[in-house]
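Hi U.,

Before I forget, here's the chain from the pilot set. I'm dumping it here mostly so it's searchable later in email.
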Amino acid sequence: MSAVKTVEFVGDKLSYIVLRGCWHNIIVVNVHTPGEEKSDESKDSFYEELDQVFEHFLKYHVKMLLGDFNAIVGRKNIFKPTIGQESLHQDNNDNGVRIVNYDTSKNLVVNSTMFRYQNIHKYTWTSSDGKIHNQIDHVLLDRRWHSSVLDVGSFRGAECDTDHYLVIAKVTERLAVGKQVTQRFGRQRFNPRKLNELEVIKQYQIEITNRFAGLENLNNDEDVNRTWENIKENIHTSAKESLGLHELKQHKPWFDAECLGFLDQRSRLKCSGYRIQAKTM
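Structure:
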């Protein structure tokens, strides 16, 4: 969580998260564009709101837009500089034209239509009867950073209770992790509660006194850093032997055997429903 700087929910269809990168902030904007059947006014209003959010970010940060654009982008020659040539569709809808126009104005590219896959791995949405397949969920990125995206494809195995498939993008940007987080892991923590016990206090006093008695014979000409290391090691060892180490609390895993049972039951019911539907057809 140290890399997360800001999380903002602009509305029901627009939100973004700002991640702290090693050299630039990485801004991921999640969108849900109005459907193709919606009015031009609602679509114009959405893109105006998106434009206001986009203009709020500094130009040198990495900006990625992803989500349900409801956009069918056709493989037209005029679109190729922006979308590549691996789109699932030959023709485009109104939302497809809008997303290309927006990308051109913001110097973005559609990375989700630039990787070669079989059509079955380009689908991001399937109709309830299983007859219509569209690629309407997309990943957009600044043109200057588009080489950072190694791969974009749909993941068909996840059950998310939706008619959309997960879209996975592999990106090579580095996140900045705070020093306080990196130093915390692997650090030994003592158990200070034992200092409430009189016997433990006496034991610690004896331990620290005996160890510091050995430091009296140190040469005055010895390097100050070496002297400090000896002092620090004596304090650390005395505390460890007297107080012991603090035992971290073991959290119960949330995904247990009961969750697996529910998933198996859901898969069986889903498969049985498909069989019943196939018989009725």
